[in-house]
Amino acid sequence: MIQKKWTSIAAVVIMLILMTFTHADQVAAFELPQSNSLAKAGRVSMPGELVVNYQLLQEDSQPVDPHTPLKIGETYLVSMRYQLKEYDNNQEIYDHNIIFSFNEGLDYLADSFYIGSNDLPATHLSDEILASIMTDFPNEMDLPFTGVLSGSMEVYYYFKVKVGNITGNVDLPGLFTGETSDGTGGIQPLSPITLSLAETNFFIAPDLQMLLTVSNPEAQVGDILTYSLTAENSGGKVGASVLKNSLPAGVEYLPNTTKINETLVDDSAWDGPEFAYSFTDIPGNEKVTLSYQVKVTGENQPSIAQNMSLEGVTSLAQQPFTVASNSVTTTIIHVPVLSSVTAYFKDEEGKTLKPSITLTGESGTKYEIDKEITGYQLKEVIGDDKGIFTDLPKEVTYLYEKIETAPIEQETNNTHEEQPQKKEQKNAQLPKTGELEPNQVLLFTGMISLFLFSLLFDLRMKRSK
Asked: Where is each Gram-positive cocci surface proteins LPxTG domain found (predicted)?
């Protein structure tokens, strides 16, 4: 009954003290209740042994699942409760301090500190009051308590923290120090109690962003493309992981073109079109780059799509994860490949029957050749006669044989027999070669005489002059 009485009195005193905190300009320490009957000097009591409950909670005060990663930017509660282990006996703890050191990536959230006890509601303490008590607030919390902790009194406080960039376990390390009785009426140091959240293995989830780019969004067959990947981890540390890629149809890898973080690496990570490169770990705030080159071979494809993935586990909780990059597409521009076919037309002896012809067209398209030659029929074809242009020029020779015709039979009727006879009669009427008619002789003689007379007359006229 006496114990419960003092507990109730202590609760009232703490309430009054805490209520004054919100109006005080400066506070030296958090004062626990103290009376003559609980004076720490000259009182024979047992050394105090504490039960400490130090937790990281959700904002709704629910426990955080240690298998679920914390997320950067989210807010959580740091909660601490402590009381005597055997509060129904004569244990006591006197002045004590609780120190917290905020590490990188876990920040105190302004105006979020509350304090109370099992008999008192939580009371908010402003940052101004906390700064008057703690010289290095908010980078470090050094919470001083004076008075006596005895009986069933439980003290608690909580405040909010915001998660930033943390590469390892989430922790807010602390230390509980103070004084306790020595069992003979004197005072002795309390064995320090280390405070840590690390045993719960809270961790930050990896936050990987993977951006893939390609050197050219358009390409022709035979062109070289460079793929570049940037994987940036702005979250927790990544454990063993594998960067994977499978080349799509239409490209082939160019040997000795793979670079990791701008350093050329061997091709052991490639197995044909498959790529797998292993990492031991990827720390938080770390960036990894990968680049490689391929040659475009896809003649019948309209485009080439490519993406990559990182498969692994978180460093601390060994939780599996897979992160995929964006997909990039390159359109294949098909340039027509022109080719030709030349046709020759010959007989069996190799004699040209008609001039050769040359046709030009796009590879893969059809063509037609006029093979008809009057009086000849096609006997043999030497070369490709499928009628389709190929990538390379080609020649085709067509060999012919002459078409044999039957002789025409002569008719024996009288009409046809008379015609040769009439022809012979006409021929008989014509003079033979060398034979001249008398009139023709006289005409020829007269012409010669006239020519001679004209010549003599001309000579005589010239002499007379």
From this structure: 423-462
Question: What's the whole-number mean pLDDT along residues 333-347?
Answer: 87
Domain termination residue (choose one: 358, 375, 402): 402
pLDDT tens-place string over residues 344-353: 999 988 999 9
Whether residues 9 and 100 fall in one domain? yes
- How far is residue 37's CA from residue 43's CA, in Å, rounded to a whole number? 8
Average pLDDT of span 365-393: 91
Residues 212 and 351 occupy one common structural domain: no
Q: Which residue spans within 59-105 are E strands per DSSP? A: 75-84, 91-101
> How far lies 327's CA from each of 217, 351, 398, in Å?
12, 63, 54
CATH number of residue 359's parent domain: 3.10.20.320
Sequence-ordered list of residues with C-beta below 8 angstroms from that of 205, at least 6 positions apart, any chain: 69, 70, 71, 235, 236, 314
CB atoms within 10 A of CB 146: 14
Report the alpha-carbon distance of residue 108 to residue 77 in Å, rounded.
Answer: 10
One-character DSSP codes across 95-117: EEEEEEE--TTEEEPTT-EEEEE
Instruction: Quickly tell me which residue has 């005589």 as its tokens.
Output: 460
Write out the H or E segment, with its range, that includes residue 160: strand 154-163
pLDDT in tens, 131-147: 988 888 888 888 888 88
User: The domain that contains 246 carries what CATH number?
Assistant: 2.60.40.740
**pTM: predicted TM-score of the whole model, two decimal places:** 0.52
Domain containing residue 265: 208-332
447's CB contacts (< 8 A; 6+ apart) are none
Q: How many domains does the chain have?
A: 3
157-159-161-167 Cα dihedral, nearest 10 degrees: -10
Q: Which residues pair with 122 in a beta bridge?
A: none
**pLDDT score for 420:** 52
Per residue, what are the HEC states of 405-438? CCCCCCCCCHHHHHHHHHHHHHHHHCCCCCCCCH
